[in-house]
Hints:
By secondary structure, the protein is α+β, with helices and mostly antiparallel strands. The protein has a single domain (8-96), classed as Aminopeptidase (3-Layer(aba) Sandwich), CATH 3.40.630. It is built from 3 helices and 5 strands; from the N terminus they run ββααβββα. A 5-stranded antiparallel beta sheet has the order 1-2-3-4-5. A hairpin with a 5-residue loop joins strand 3 (53-58) and strand 4 (64-72). The longest helix has 10 residues, at 26-35. The protein is globular.
Amino acid sequence: MKLKPSGSLKIDTFSxxxxxxxxxxxxxxxxxxxxxxxxxxxxxxQFLRETGQGFVALDExxxxxxxxxxxxxxxxxxxxxxxxxxxxxxxxxAAQW
Length: 97
């Protein structure tokens, strides 16, 4: 399944849109990582946004439901990280894509 920044996906009763991770408040990203038991602080998220690129999945009222980032290492190599699906959607099978 290929999603574009302007694309959307409906899962059960959830409607999501893809947004730029740069436009999301740090406390919302921090809350997402805490919700899955990850130790990342808001400062860590800031560093990650400065060194990488990414998208977030947002619900109709702007809550962060998921994230994914990538970090370029030269012209032909990148690593993927911060792939998180909120527990709310994990219970509905969304993390099994």
